[in-house]
Amino acid sequence: MKSRSLLALTASALALPGIAPIARADTPPTNTNIAYRVSSYEEDKLPEEFLFAGSAERYDITIHQFQLVTPVGENYGLTLSTSVESMSGASPWYAVTPFDGEQGIVMSGATIHEKRRDYSVGLRRYLDNGSLGFNVGTSKENDYESWNGGFDIQGDFNNELTTLAGGVSFSSDDINPTDASLYNRVTDQSKRTSSAFISVSQVINQNSLFQSSVNITHHNGFLTDPYKLGDSRPESRTQVAWSNAYRRFISDLDGALHLDLRIYDDDFGINSLTFDLSWYQNVGNAFQVIPRLRYYSQSAADFFTPENDFSGLPLFNSSDYRLSAYGALSGALQVQASINDMTISFVLERYLSDDSYSFYDGGKSPAIVDFTRVSLGLGYSF
Amino acid sequence: MILKLKLVMFPLIAIVAGVLAGCESVEAWERGTLAKPEMAIVSDSLEAALNDHIYFSKEASNGGHSATGGGCGCN
Q: Could you tell me the pLDDT band of residue B75, with boundaries at 50, 70 and 90?
Protein backbone atom coordinates (compact mmCIF):
# COMPACT_ATOMS: atom_id res chain seq x y z
CA MET A 1 0.00 0.00 0.00
CA LYS A 2 1.30 3.45 -0.83
CA SER A 3 2.56 5.59 2.03
CA ARG A 4 0.20 8.25 3.26
CA SER A 5 2.62 11.02 2.27
CA LEU A 6 2.79 9.73 -1.29
CA LEU A 7 -0.98 9.38 -1.40
CA ALA A 8 -1.32 12.98 -0.28
CA LEU A 9 1.15 14.15 -2.94
CA THR A 10 -0.48 12.18 -5.69
CA ALA A 11 -3.96 13.26 -4.70
CA SER A 12 -5.00 15.17 -7.75
CA ALA A 13 -7.58 17.12 -5.76
CA LEU A 14 -10.17 15.51 -7.95
CA ALA A 15 -13.23 15.74 -5.76
CA LEU A 16 -15.46 12.74 -5.81
CA PRO A 17 -18.88 13.97 -6.87
CA GLY A 18 -20.37 12.24 -3.90
CA ILE A 19 -23.64 12.98 -2.30
CA ALA A 20 -23.32 16.32 -0.57
CA PRO A 21 -22.01 16.99 1.99
CA ILE A 22 -19.86 13.86 2.25
CA ALA A 23 -16.09 14.44 2.22
CA ARG A 24 -14.99 14.62 -1.39
CA ALA A 25 -11.39 13.44 -1.82
CA ASP A 26 -9.59 10.37 -3.05
CA THR A 27 -7.40 10.01 0.06
CA PRO A 28 -8.50 9.40 3.65
CA PRO A 29 -8.63 12.44 5.89
CA THR A 30 -5.53 12.71 8.05
CA ASN A 31 -6.96 15.20 10.53
CA THR A 32 -10.32 15.75 12.18
CA ASN A 33 -12.07 18.79 10.76
CA ILE A 34 -14.99 20.56 12.38
CA ALA A 35 -16.87 23.26 10.50
CA TYR A 36 -19.78 25.50 11.47
CA ARG A 37 -21.59 28.03 9.33
CA VAL A 38 -24.49 30.38 10.07
CA SER A 39 -26.30 32.03 7.19
CA SER A 40 -29.01 34.65 6.85
CA TYR A 41 -31.18 34.45 3.74
CA GLU A 42 -33.64 37.30 2.99
CA GLU A 43 -35.94 37.61 0.01
CA ASP A 44 -36.92 41.01 -1.32
CA LYS A 45 -40.55 42.05 -0.92
CA LEU A 46 -42.95 41.36 -3.78
CA PRO A 47 -43.22 44.59 -5.81
CA GLU A 48 -46.41 46.42 -4.80
CA GLU A 49 -47.64 46.72 -8.38
CA PHE A 50 -47.97 42.92 -8.55
CA LEU A 51 -49.47 42.39 -5.10
CA PHE A 52 -53.21 41.68 -5.41
CA ALA A 53 -53.82 40.54 -1.84
CA GLY A 54 -51.93 39.42 1.25
CA SER A 55 -48.53 40.40 2.59
CA ALA A 56 -45.71 41.52 0.30
CA GLU A 57 -43.14 40.21 2.81
CA ARG A 58 -41.39 37.04 1.70
CA TYR A 59 -39.13 34.52 3.34
CA ASP A 60 -36.43 35.22 5.90
CA ILE A 61 -34.44 32.12 6.78
CA THR A 62 -31.60 31.49 9.22
CA ILE A 63 -29.53 28.37 8.56
CA HIS A 64 -27.06 26.71 10.90
CA GLN A 65 -24.77 24.08 9.38
CA PHE A 66 -22.38 21.78 11.21
CA GLN A 67 -20.00 19.18 9.80
CA LEU A 68 -17.44 16.82 11.28
CA VAL A 69 -15.01 14.89 9.07
CA THR A 70 -12.67 12.49 10.80
CA PRO A 71 -10.47 9.52 9.96
CA VAL A 72 -11.50 6.16 11.34
CA GLY A 73 -8.53 3.86 11.39
CA GLU A 74 -6.19 3.99 8.39
CA ASN A 75 -8.68 3.36 5.61
CA TYR A 76 -11.97 5.00 6.58
CA GLY A 77 -13.35 8.52 6.72
CA LEU A 78 -16.50 9.45 8.64
CA THR A 79 -18.63 12.51 7.90
CA LEU A 80 -21.38 13.74 10.22
CA SER A 81 -23.52 16.65 9.05
CA THR A 82 -26.50 18.48 10.42
CA SER A 83 -28.35 21.67 9.63
CA VAL A 84 -31.19 23.59 11.24
CA GLU A 85 -33.29 26.15 9.38
CA SER A 86 -35.71 28.64 10.91
CA MET A 87 -38.11 30.11 8.36
CA SER A 88 -40.63 32.91 8.54
CA GLY A 89 -42.56 34.84 5.93
CA ALA A 90 -45.23 34.53 3.27
CA SER A 91 -45.24 32.93 -0.17
CA PRO A 92 -47.34 33.22 -3.35
CA TRP A 93 -50.70 31.42 -2.95
CA TYR A 94 -52.17 31.86 -6.43
CA ALA A 95 -52.11 34.23 -9.41
CA VAL A 96 -54.92 36.22 -11.03
CA THR A 97 -55.24 38.64 -13.92
CA PRO A 98 -57.29 41.61 -12.71
CA PHE A 99 -59.46 43.40 -15.24
CA ASP A 100 -56.59 45.76 -16.23
CA GLY A 101 -54.78 42.74 -17.72
CA GLU A 102 -51.76 42.79 -15.42
CA GLN A 103 -50.84 39.73 -13.36
CA GLY A 104 -51.61 39.94 -9.68
CA ILE A 105 -50.22 37.66 -6.99
CA VAL A 106 -52.27 36.67 -3.98
CA MET A 107 -49.85 35.99 -1.16
CA SER A 108 -50.52 33.69 1.76
CA GLY A 109 -52.12 35.77 4.47
CA ALA A 110 -50.42 34.46 7.57
CA THR A 111 -46.69 34.58 8.15
CA ILE A 112 -45.44 31.05 8.65
CA HIS A 113 -42.88 30.15 11.26
CA GLU A 114 -41.25 26.83 10.68
CA LYS A 115 -38.15 24.84 11.48
CA ARG A 116 -36.36 22.22 9.38
CA ARG A 117 -33.69 19.88 10.66
CA ASP A 118 -31.60 17.47 8.68
CA TYR A 119 -28.96 14.93 9.67
CA SER A 120 -26.66 12.75 7.58
CA VAL A 121 -23.93 10.20 8.23
CA GLY A 122 -21.43 9.09 5.62
CA LEU A 123 -18.69 6.49 5.72
CA ARG A 124 -16.00 6.17 3.03
CA ARG A 125 -13.67 3.21 2.62
CA TYR A 126 -10.45 4.15 0.85
CA LEU A 127 -8.75 1.56 -1.33
CA ASP A 128 -5.44 1.60 -3.15
CA ASN A 129 -7.03 2.92 -6.33
CA GLY A 130 -10.37 4.33 -5.30
CA SER A 131 -12.99 4.38 -2.62
CA LEU A 132 -16.50 3.25 -1.67
CA GLY A 133 -18.97 5.57 0.02
CA PHE A 134 -22.20 4.97 1.96
CA ASN A 135 -24.52 7.52 3.46
CA VAL A 136 -27.90 7.82 5.16
CA GLY A 137 -29.82 10.88 6.19
CA THR A 138 -33.11 12.36 7.27
CA SER A 139 -34.85 15.73 7.03
CA LYS A 140 -37.79 16.77 9.21
CA GLU A 141 -40.22 19.67 9.16
CA ASN A 142 -43.69 20.21 10.63
CA ASP A 143 -45.30 18.90 7.46
CA TYR A 144 -42.54 16.96 5.69
CA GLU A 145 -40.31 14.02 6.53
CA SER A 146 -37.65 12.54 4.29
CA TRP A 147 -35.35 9.53 4.64
CA ASN A 148 -32.54 8.95 2.18
CA GLY A 149 -29.59 6.71 1.56
CA GLY A 150 -26.98 6.21 -1.11
CA PHE A 151 -23.89 4.43 -2.32
CA ASP A 152 -21.06 5.54 -4.60
CA ILE A 153 -17.85 4.07 -5.97
CA GLN A 154 -14.75 5.77 -7.33
CA GLY A 155 -11.85 4.23 -9.23
CA ASP A 156 -8.53 5.77 -10.28
CA PHE A 157 -6.88 4.73 -13.54
CA ASN A 158 -4.14 5.79 -15.89
CA ASN A 159 -1.56 6.43 -13.15
CA GLU A 160 -4.28 8.19 -11.12
CA LEU A 161 -4.74 10.78 -13.84
CA THR A 162 -8.26 9.56 -14.62
CA THR A 163 -11.04 8.95 -12.11
CA LEU A 164 -14.33 7.23 -12.87
CA ALA A 165 -17.13 7.46 -10.35
CA GLY A 166 -20.74 6.43 -10.09
CA GLY A 167 -23.42 6.22 -7.49
CA VAL A 168 -27.09 5.85 -6.66
CA SER A 169 -29.33 7.34 -4.01
CA PHE A 170 -32.93 6.84 -2.87
CA SER A 171 -35.26 9.04 -0.92
CA SER A 172 -38.68 8.39 0.61
CA ASP A 173 -40.69 11.49 1.55
CA ASP A 174 -43.96 11.81 3.50
CA ILE A 175 -46.06 14.96 3.21
CA ASN A 176 -48.77 16.08 5.66
CA PRO A 177 -49.69 19.72 4.91
CA THR A 178 -50.60 21.90 7.86
CA ASP A 179 -54.16 23.27 8.22
CA ALA A 180 -55.33 20.61 5.79
CA SER A 181 -58.99 20.63 6.81
CA LEU A 182 -59.14 24.44 7.04
CA TYR A 183 -57.91 24.89 3.44
CA ASN A 184 -59.16 21.62 1.95
CA ARG A 185 -55.65 20.33 1.39
CA VAL A 186 -54.60 16.73 0.83
CA THR A 187 -53.26 14.63 3.69
CA ASP A 188 -50.87 11.67 4.00
CA GLN A 189 -49.12 11.95 0.67
CA SER A 190 -45.78 10.47 -0.30
CA LYS A 191 -43.04 10.76 -2.88
CA ARG A 192 -40.20 8.44 -3.87
CA THR A 193 -37.01 9.63 -5.55
CA SER A 194 -34.21 7.63 -7.09
CA SER A 195 -31.08 9.13 -8.57
CA ALA A 196 -27.91 7.95 -10.25
CA PHE A 197 -24.77 9.61 -11.54
CA ILE A 198 -21.63 8.77 -13.46
CA SER A 199 -18.63 11.02 -13.82
CA VAL A 200 -15.15 11.16 -15.26
CA SER A 201 -12.39 13.38 -13.92
CA GLN A 202 -9.20 13.95 -15.87
CA VAL A 203 -5.93 15.66 -15.07
CA ILE A 204 -5.08 17.73 -18.14
CA ASN A 205 -1.64 18.95 -17.09
CA GLN A 206 0.24 20.07 -13.97
CA ASN A 207 -2.06 23.07 -13.57
CA SER A 208 -5.50 22.04 -14.76
CA LEU A 209 -8.12 19.36 -14.51
CA PHE A 210 -11.59 18.67 -15.83
CA GLN A 211 -14.68 16.78 -14.66
CA SER A 212 -17.84 15.81 -16.51
CA SER A 213 -20.86 14.28 -14.78
CA VAL A 214 -24.31 13.08 -15.80
CA ASN A 215 -27.05 12.74 -13.21
CA ILE A 216 -30.51 11.21 -13.75
CA THR A 217 -33.25 11.60 -11.15
CA HIS A 218 -36.76 10.16 -11.16
CA HIS A 219 -39.55 11.26 -8.83
CA ASN A 220 -42.75 9.32 -8.35
CA GLY A 221 -45.73 10.22 -6.19
CA PHE A 222 -47.22 13.48 -4.95
CA LEU A 223 -45.36 16.31 -6.70
CA THR A 224 -48.02 19.03 -6.44
CA ASP A 225 -47.47 21.97 -4.09
CA PRO A 226 -50.31 21.64 -1.52
CA TYR A 227 -49.85 25.27 -0.42
CA LYS A 228 -50.57 26.72 -3.84
CA LEU A 229 -54.27 27.02 -4.63
CA GLY A 230 -55.29 25.21 -7.79
CA ASP A 231 -51.84 23.64 -8.21
CA SER A 232 -51.90 20.30 -10.01
CA ARG A 233 -48.78 18.51 -11.34
CA PRO A 234 -48.01 15.10 -12.85
CA GLU A 235 -47.18 12.27 -10.47
CA SER A 236 -43.93 11.47 -12.21
CA ARG A 237 -40.90 13.56 -13.14
CA THR A 238 -37.58 12.59 -14.72
CA GLN A 239 -34.66 15.02 -14.65
CA VAL A 240 -31.33 14.84 -16.47
CA ALA A 241 -28.39 17.13 -15.73
CA TRP A 242 -24.98 17.24 -17.41
CA SER A 243 -22.36 19.16 -15.46
CA ASN A 244 -18.86 20.13 -16.49
CA ALA A 245 -16.17 21.62 -14.28
CA TYR A 246 -12.78 23.05 -15.26
CA ARG A 247 -10.10 24.07 -12.78
CA ARG A 248 -6.92 25.89 -13.72
CA PHE A 249 -4.20 27.30 -11.49
CA ILE A 250 -2.35 30.35 -12.80
CA SER A 251 0.92 30.51 -10.89
CA ASP A 252 1.86 34.05 -12.03
CA LEU A 253 -1.29 35.31 -10.29
CA ASP A 254 -1.24 32.73 -7.45
CA GLY A 255 -4.88 31.98 -8.05
CA ALA A 256 -7.22 29.36 -9.46
CA LEU A 257 -9.97 29.72 -12.04
CA HIS A 258 -13.20 27.71 -11.66
CA LEU A 259 -15.56 27.33 -14.60
CA ASP A 260 -18.75 25.26 -14.26
CA LEU A 261 -21.43 24.66 -16.85
CA ARG A 262 -24.61 22.62 -16.35
CA ILE A 263 -27.24 21.72 -18.95
CA TYR A 264 -30.57 20.45 -17.61
CA ASP A 265 -33.68 18.89 -19.09
CA ASP A 266 -36.80 17.27 -17.63
CA ASP A 267 -40.17 15.92 -18.74
CA PHE A 268 -42.06 18.81 -17.17
CA GLY A 269 -40.80 20.69 -20.25
CA ILE A 270 -38.16 22.62 -18.34
CA ASN A 271 -34.69 23.19 -19.78
CA SER A 272 -32.01 25.24 -18.11
CA LEU A 273 -28.47 26.44 -18.42
CA THR A 274 -26.27 27.31 -15.44
CA PHE A 275 -22.86 28.94 -15.77
CA ASP A 276 -20.58 29.58 -12.79
CA LEU A 277 -17.33 31.54 -12.82
CA SER A 278 -15.14 31.89 -9.71
CA TRP A 279 -11.64 33.12 -9.07
CA TYR A 280 -9.71 31.92 -6.00
CA GLN A 281 -7.13 34.59 -5.24
CA ASN A 282 -4.53 33.79 -2.62
CA VAL A 283 -3.37 36.79 -0.61
CA GLY A 284 -0.21 35.92 1.26
CA ASN A 285 -0.23 32.59 3.01
CA ALA A 286 -3.27 33.15 5.20
CA PHE A 287 -5.98 34.80 3.13
CA GLN A 288 -8.08 33.95 0.13
CA VAL A 289 -10.56 36.17 -1.73
CA ILE A 290 -13.10 34.46 -3.98
CA PRO A 291 -15.36 36.53 -6.25
CA ARG A 292 -18.08 34.54 -8.02
CA LEU A 293 -20.57 35.14 -10.81
CA ARG A 294 -23.44 32.83 -11.65
CA TYR A 295 -25.86 32.97 -14.57
CA TYR A 296 -29.01 30.84 -14.67
CA SER A 297 -31.68 30.61 -17.37
CA GLN A 298 -34.71 28.30 -17.42
CA SER A 299 -37.73 27.69 -19.61
CA ALA A 300 -41.28 27.34 -18.30
CA ALA A 301 -42.95 24.02 -17.48
CA ASP A 302 -45.46 22.82 -20.08
CA PHE A 303 -48.30 23.27 -17.60
CA PHE A 304 -47.19 26.63 -16.17
CA THR A 305 -49.93 29.27 -16.32
CA PRO A 306 -49.35 32.94 -15.44
CA GLU A 307 -52.90 32.94 -14.07
CA ASN A 308 -54.43 29.99 -12.20
CA ASP A 309 -57.18 28.16 -14.05
CA PHE A 310 -59.80 27.00 -11.53
CA SER A 311 -62.15 25.62 -14.17
CA GLY A 312 -60.86 22.10 -13.54
CA LEU A 313 -60.41 21.61 -17.28
CA PRO A 314 -56.63 21.42 -17.62
CA LEU A 315 -55.46 18.28 -15.85
CA PHE A 316 -52.20 19.97 -14.83
CA ASN A 317 -51.61 23.62 -14.15
CA SER A 318 -49.49 25.71 -11.80
CA SER A 319 -48.71 29.41 -11.37
CA ASP A 320 -45.68 28.60 -9.20
CA TYR A 321 -43.03 31.15 -10.21
CA ARG A 322 -40.36 28.46 -9.90
CA LEU A 323 -41.87 26.80 -12.99
CA SER A 324 -41.93 29.99 -15.08
CA ALA A 325 -39.43 31.13 -17.71
CA TYR A 326 -36.85 33.43 -16.16
CA GLY A 327 -33.17 34.04 -15.68
CA ALA A 328 -31.02 35.00 -12.72
CA LEU A 329 -27.69 36.65 -12.17
CA SER A 330 -25.95 36.34 -8.85
CA GLY A 331 -22.70 37.72 -7.56
CA ALA A 332 -20.92 36.58 -4.43
CA LEU A 333 -17.76 37.46 -2.58
CA GLN A 334 -16.11 35.07 -0.15
CA VAL A 335 -13.21 36.04 2.07
CA GLN A 336 -11.35 33.36 3.96
CA ALA A 337 -8.58 33.51 6.56
CA SER A 338 -6.52 30.60 7.85
CA ILE A 339 -4.88 31.16 11.21
CA ASN A 340 -2.92 28.21 12.57
CA ASP A 341 -5.49 25.38 12.55
CA MET A 342 -8.53 27.66 12.30
CA THR A 343 -10.35 28.94 9.26
CA ILE A 344 -12.77 31.87 9.23
CA SER A 345 -14.89 32.66 6.19
CA PHE A 346 -17.41 35.29 5.23
CA VAL A 347 -19.72 35.17 2.20
CA LEU A 348 -22.02 37.82 0.76
CA GLU A 349 -24.31 36.90 -2.15
CA ARG A 350 -26.86 38.95 -4.08
CA TYR A 351 -29.27 37.09 -6.44
CA LEU A 352 -31.35 39.00 -8.98
CA SER A 353 -33.95 37.39 -11.24
CA ASP A 354 -35.85 38.76 -14.22
CA ASP A 355 -37.75 37.19 -17.06
CA SER A 356 -35.71 39.28 -19.50
CA TYR A 357 -32.52 37.54 -18.30
CA SER A 358 -33.69 34.25 -19.79
CA PHE A 359 -33.08 33.32 -23.41
CA TYR A 360 -36.18 31.11 -23.33
CA ASP A 361 -39.66 32.17 -24.32
CA GLY A 362 -42.56 30.99 -22.22
CA GLY A 363 -44.91 31.88 -19.41
CA LYS A 364 -43.61 34.46 -16.97
CA SER A 365 -44.36 35.26 -13.35
CA PRO A 366 -43.87 38.54 -11.47
CA ALA A 367 -43.30 36.53 -8.27
CA ILE A 368 -39.74 35.41 -9.10
CA VAL A 369 -37.41 36.17 -6.19
CA ASP A 370 -34.42 38.35 -5.51
CA PHE A 371 -32.51 37.58 -2.34
CA THR A 372 -29.49 38.46 -0.24
CA ARG A 373 -27.49 35.88 1.65
CA VAL A 374 -24.79 36.42 4.24
CA SER A 375 -22.77 33.58 5.78
CA LEU A 376 -20.14 33.39 8.51
CA GLY A 377 -18.16 30.19 8.92
CA LEU A 378 -15.62 28.76 11.34
CA GLY A 379 -13.45 25.69 10.87
CA TYR A 380 -10.95 23.91 13.05
CA SER A 381 -8.58 21.09 12.23
CA PHE A 382 -6.85 18.89 14.81
CA MET B 1 -34.44 19.01 -25.71
CA ILE B 2 -35.16 22.31 -27.35
CA LEU B 3 -33.03 23.79 -30.10
CA LYS B 4 -31.37 26.40 -27.86
CA LEU B 5 -29.83 23.78 -25.59
CA LYS B 6 -28.74 21.73 -28.58
CA LEU B 7 -26.79 24.76 -29.81
CA VAL B 8 -24.88 24.74 -26.51
CA MET B 9 -24.59 20.99 -26.10
CA PHE B 10 -22.84 20.10 -29.36
CA PRO B 11 -20.05 22.70 -29.06
CA LEU B 12 -19.64 21.60 -25.44
CA ILE B 13 -19.16 18.00 -26.54
CA ALA B 14 -16.49 19.19 -28.99
CA ILE B 15 -14.76 21.19 -26.25
CA VAL B 16 -14.80 18.24 -23.85
CA ALA B 17 -13.36 15.94 -26.51
CA GLY B 18 -10.68 18.48 -27.37
CA VAL B 19 -9.72 19.00 -23.73
CA LEU B 20 -9.47 15.28 -23.06
CA ALA B 21 -7.44 14.72 -26.22
CA GLY B 22 -4.90 17.33 -25.10
CA CYS B 23 -4.07 15.71 -21.78
CA GLU B 24 -0.47 15.33 -20.67
CA SER B 25 1.14 12.72 -18.51
CA VAL B 26 1.84 14.19 -15.07
CA GLU B 27 4.13 12.28 -12.74
CA ALA B 28 3.40 11.97 -9.04
CA TRP B 29 6.05 14.49 -8.05
CA GLU B 30 4.57 17.06 -10.44
CA ARG B 31 1.10 17.11 -8.85
CA GLY B 32 1.69 19.57 -6.03
CA THR B 33 -0.37 22.31 -7.68
CA LEU B 34 -3.23 19.93 -8.39
CA ALA B 35 -3.36 19.04 -4.69
CA LYS B 36 -3.97 22.64 -3.60
CA PRO B 37 -7.37 23.09 -1.87
CA GLU B 38 -8.39 25.78 -4.37
CA MET B 39 -8.02 23.23 -7.18
CA ALA B 40 -10.70 20.90 -5.79
CA ILE B 41 -13.91 20.48 -7.75
CA VAL B 42 -15.65 21.44 -4.48
CA SER B 43 -13.40 23.57 -2.28
CA ASP B 44 -15.95 24.34 0.44
CA SER B 45 -18.45 21.55 1.09
CA LEU B 46 -20.69 23.58 3.44
CA GLU B 47 -20.89 26.44 0.92
CA ALA B 48 -21.65 23.95 -1.86
CA ALA B 49 -24.34 22.21 0.21
CA LEU B 50 -25.98 25.53 1.09
CA ASN B 51 -25.93 26.73 -2.52
CA ASP B 52 -27.36 23.41 -3.72
CA HIS B 53 -30.17 23.71 -1.17
CA ILE B 54 -31.02 27.34 -1.97
CA TYR B 55 -31.03 26.86 -5.74
CA PHE B 56 -32.98 23.59 -5.41
CA SER B 57 -35.63 25.48 -3.41
CA LYS B 58 -35.86 28.53 -5.65
CA GLU B 59 -35.23 27.18 -9.15
CA ALA B 60 -36.74 24.35 -11.18
CA SER B 61 -33.46 22.57 -11.94
CA ASN B 62 -31.71 20.02 -9.79
CA GLY B 63 -28.57 17.94 -9.68
CA GLY B 64 -25.65 17.55 -12.03
CA HIS B 65 -22.52 16.71 -10.08
CA SER B 66 -23.75 13.86 -7.89
CA ALA B 67 -26.73 11.73 -7.08
CA THR B 68 -29.28 13.92 -5.34
CA GLY B 69 -29.69 13.57 -1.60
CA GLY B 70 -32.79 13.76 0.54
CA GLY B 71 -35.83 15.85 -0.13
CA CYS B 72 -37.46 18.67 1.76
CA GLY B 73 -40.66 20.64 1.57
CA CYS B 74 -38.79 23.53 0.02
CA ASN B 75 -39.74 22.81 -3.56
A: low
Contact flag B58-A118 (C-beta cutoff 8 Å): no
Higher pLDDT, B73 or A170: A170
The predicted-structure confidence for B20-36, as pLDDT tens digits, reads as follows: 677 888 888 888 999 99
Q: How many CB pairs under 8 A join A and B?
A: 265
Q: Is 50 exceeded by the pLDDT of residue B60?
A: yes
- Could you say which residues from 31 to 70 on chain A have a Cβ atom under 8 Å away from some Cβ of chain B? 35, 37, 39, 41, 63, 65, 67
User: Which pLDDT score, from 0 to 100, does residue A4 have?
Assistant: 31
**Element (H or E) spanning B56, and its range?**
helix B45-58
- Whether A229 and chain B come into contact, CB under 8 Å, resolves to no
Contact across the interface for B72 and A146, Cβ inside 8 Å: yes
CA distance A277 to A44: 25
Tell me the domains of chain A and their CATH numbers.
4-381 (2.40.160.40)
Q: What is the pTM of this model?
A: 0.89
Task: Report CB contact under 8 Å: B60, A37.
Answer: no
Residue B60 contacts residue A298 (beta carbons within 8 Å): yes
B3 touches chain A (CB under 8 A): no
pLDDT at position A332: 98
Closest CA to A380 of A114, A35, A69: A35
Nearest to A80 by CA among A29, A127, A12: A29
Which residues does A158 contact at the CB level (< 8 Å), separation at least 6?
none
User: Would you place residue B2 in the very low, low, confident or very high pLDDT band (cuts 50, 70, 90)?
Assistant: low
- Neighboring chain A residues of B75 at a CB cutoff of 8 Å: 322
∠ CA A60-A320-B75, nearest 5°, is 60
Chain B nearest CA to A125, separation (Å): 18
- Closest alpha carbon to B26 in B39, B16, B7, B38: B39
Count CB atoms within 10 A of the CB of residue A365.
25
Nearest to A9 among B24, B32, B74 (CB): B32
Longest dimension (CA), chain A: 75
Contact A40, A374 (CB under 8 A): yes
Residue ranges of chain A whose pLDDT lies below 70? 1-26, 99-101, 109-110
